[in-house]
Amino acid sequence: IIEFDQVWKIFGAGESETIALQNVDLTVETGEFVSIIGPSGCGKSTLLRLIADLLPPSKGDIRVNGKTPRQARLDRDYGMVFQAPTLYEWRTVLKNVELPLEVMRSAREDKRGRAVKMLDLVGLSDFQNHYPRQLSGGMQQRVSIARALVFEPTLILMDEPFGALDEFTRERLNLELLDIWAETHKTVIFVTHSISEAVFLSSRVVVMTPRPGKIARIIDIDLS
Amino acid sequence: IIEFDQVWKIFGAGESETIALQNVDLTVETGEFVSIIGPSGCGKSTLLRLIADLLPPSKGDIRVNGKTPRQARLDRDYGMVFQAPTLYEWRTVLKNVELPLEVMRSAREDKRGRAVKMLDLVGLSDFQNHYPRQLSGGMQQRVSIARALVFEPTLILMDEPFGALDEFTRERLNLELLDIWAETHKTVIFVTHSISEAVFLSSRVVVMTPRPGKIARIIDIDLS
Ligand SMILES: Nc1ncnc2c1ncn2[C@@H]1O[C@H](COP(=O)(O)OP(=O)(O)OP(=O)(O)O)[C@@H](O)[C@H]1O
Ligand SMILES: Nc1ncnc2c1ncn2[C@@H]1O[C@H](COP(=O)(O)OP(=O)(O)OP(=O)(O)O)[C@@H](O)[C@H]1O
Ligand SMILES: [Mg+2]
Ligand SMILES: [Mg+2]
After folding, report:
1. Cβ atoms of B34 and B28 closer than 8 Å
2. How far lies A34's CA from each of A31, A158, B75, B176, in Å?
3. Residue B149's CB: how many other CB atoms inside 10 A?
4. To the nearest whole number, what is the mean pLDDT of chain B?
5. B79 near B18, Cβ under 8 Å?
6. Do A154 and A77 meet the contact criterion of CB atoms below 8 Å apart?
7. B138 chain-A contacts, CB cut-off 8 A
8. Pocket lining: A41 vs ligand 2, CB cutoff 6 Å
9. For a disulfide at A85, which of A32, A40, A109, A144, Cβ 3.0-4.6 Å?
10. Minimal Cα–Cα distance from B168 to chain A, Å?
11. Counting Cβ atoms within 10 Å, is residue A142 exposed (0-12), middle (13-18) or buried (19+)?
């Protein structure tokens, strides 16, 4: 479902050249839960941005559901949670979560119902009519998770979605995410700094080297 | 050095009233390393913002170094690391770190030297002339840590400073911070989601309840 074929990403040139990703080969199959771990600055967000057509590769090829990243983005094949919450300040929490359904001109009559259900999942039912700036850092991140899941995408890209959360909330959302994955067979690509979280959630863990980011090893997790 | 006397912080009114902090009494002595832990949305950032005069209390009194929070802010008594990096996009990394020294019209001739030393501490010597948008999430956060420390403040307020970092970088910076604290006897107020980090770094750990945020308990850590 996702294929990286000898992918490089280089920023800048000459003296200020930074090789963010070097010769990355990676295949993610449908229904897998793959975590990506590695040191700060090693290329994890860059990898996700390449999948999401937010950046072009410098060399090599990327396929998402058999299409170019651009086409997959236009077809809205996936939901994405960014490393920083990216909510619209002028929309309420509920309206922020409903946004993907509006944009897709979803025929669903239950747009509101879907959004409310997702907010309940992340523990923010009491804040539907609040504005993002009235929420704590972790609460804003949870709204952006609800938004990424609301249109039930078959592929989800998550860049350290639980980083701003305390351990209890994080563990609870880990379990919720695992439930969703088990029930719906979504494909998940999950960047995290927590090794234990990666091992808990994933069917495979991709370990990256420090810059220039290469894949150091891929660990298969035996799911019983 | 920091005193909270029956402090409340209430946002909104009527139906949309949120009690962020309820009847908080807290004293932090000079030279202490105090961590604040608690669930997402419980009031940790609010507590720090009250100390830093970014918000007024709804009830109660706050003293910082015997002054009002406003006076302590005008006198630049402390450095602060926010939950999200707050760098100036149009300044290089080095210039961002030098900023407090410029603002204080520091007589130090070695402004540049101080800034370079701090960047080296957080592992970003190679990125002095980069701009914030060229850095990863964790790298930007590390720049904001370097900036908070550069003018050697006697009080440091840190709101989840290492949240965006991988475990190795985080542990290394924990050790650096502990060294700095041991050598310079600074007072540190440190918000974290990691219980193990709080126990490792602190002389006392303040545990907060879920909203409305109250102090549930204060744990003394025996430092040998
Ligand atoms: N400007 C505001 N208006 C209304 N409510 C606010 C405002 N700022 C914060 N709050 C509320 O106050 C509560 C505490 O927020 P705070 O940011 O202190 O939480 P926190 O403990 O730092 O959370 P996190 O761990 O997620 O960063 C939250 O319920 C939040 O929604
Ligand atoms: N627009 C850009 N211009 C120049 N360099 C960039 C740009 N974007 C990213 N980089 C560099 O590419 C490298 C990888 O960045 P990336 O954001 O992918 O790291 P990361 O693994 O997500 O780090 P973190 O864990 O801190 O979020 C970093 O060294 C960064 O400075
Ligand atoms: Mg990143
Ligand atoms: Mg906070």
Report:
1. yes
2. 9, 10, 50, 33
3. 24
4. 92
5. no
6. yes
7. 40-41, 193
8. yes
9. A144
10. 7
11. buried
Length of chain A in terms of residues written: 224
Which of B39, B137, B170 has the CB atom closest to A45's CB atom?
B137
Nearest protein Cα to ligand 2, atom 24: A40
Largest Cα–Cα distance of chain B, in whole Å? Answer: 55
Shortest distance between the Cα of A3 and any Cα of chain B, in A, equals 23
Q: How far is A105 from chain B (nearest CA, A)?
A: 31
Query: Which residue is closest to A11 within chain B, CA to CA?
Result: B134
Cβ contacts of A15 within 8 Å, gap of 6 or more: none
A74 exposure class (CB count in 10 Å sphere: 0-12, 13-18, 19+): exposed
Interior angle at CA A194, CA A190 and CA A198, nearest 5 = 45
What number of residues does chain B have? 224
Share above pLDDT 70 across residues of chain B, in percent, rounded to a whole number: 98
Size of interface A-B (CB pairs under 8 A): 82
Contacts of B11 in chain A (CB under 8 A): 134
- pLDDT single digits (tens) A109-145: 788 999 999 999 999 999 999 999 999 999 999 999 9
List strands edge to edge, sheet with B33-37. B78-81, B155-159, B187-191, B33-37, B204-208, B215-220
Coil vs helix vs strand at A202: coil
For the range B174-183, what are the long-range contacts, defined as Cβ-Cβ under 8 Å and sequence gap of 24 or more? B174/B200, B174/B201, B176/B121, B176/B122, B177/B201, B180/B149, B181/B33
How remote is the C-alpha of A5 from its chain's centroid?
21
Residue B108 — pLDDT band, cuts 50, 70, 90? Answer: low
- Among B10, B11, B47, residue to substitute to test ligand 1 (most atoms within 8 Å of Cβ): B11
